[in-house]
Amino acid sequence: MRAVVLTSFAGIDALELSEVPDPAPADGEQLVRIRAASIGPWDIANAHGAFAATGGSGEFPQVQGWDFAGETGDGRRVAGFVPQPWVGVGALAEQISVPAAILTPLPDRLGFEEASALPVCALTAKLLVDAAGL
User: Fold this and answer.
1) Please, is 42 exposed, middle or buried when counting C-beta atoms within 10 Å of its C-beta (0-12, 13-18, 19+)?
2) What is the spatial distance between Cα 126 and Cα 48, in angstroms, rounded to a whole number?
3) CATH class (in words) of the domain with range 2-131
4) Cα 129 to Cα 115, 117, 119, 126, distances in angstroms
5) 48-104 pLDDT, tens digit each
C-alpha cells in the first residue's frame, strides 16, 4: 500500500510517498481503509524527532499521521486516532490497523475530511474547556 513515510528526523523534507506492507490486524484490532487524514503540529514535531526521546521509535521508515477517518471492512464509517504514533505506525496511509475500541462511528451528515480533523483536536479543545470550567 502507499503511505507517507518519514525517512529521518530531518523535518518535512524527509517525508516521502512510499510503498509499505499492508497492516495485519492483531486480536482486538480493526482494519480501516483511510478516506481522509489530518495533519497537526504534532506531526511536524514528530518529523523533527520531538518524540524520539520520550519512547518514540528511531527506526525508519515511519508512517506518519495521527488522526483519520475511513471505512471498516463491513462498511462502517469511523474516525479515530493512532494510539502511539511515535512508534512509526500512522494514518497517512491507505489502510491502518488500530484497536477497535478507539474507533468512533460517524453520522452520515459528517464527511470524512471533517471527521479526520476531530479526534485529537476535538479532544484537546474539550480538555481546555473543561479545565477552564466553562
Assistant:
1) middle
2) 27
3) alpha beta
4) 20, 18, 16, 5
5) 998 877 777 778 999 999 999 999 999 999 999 887 755 667 999 999 999 999 999
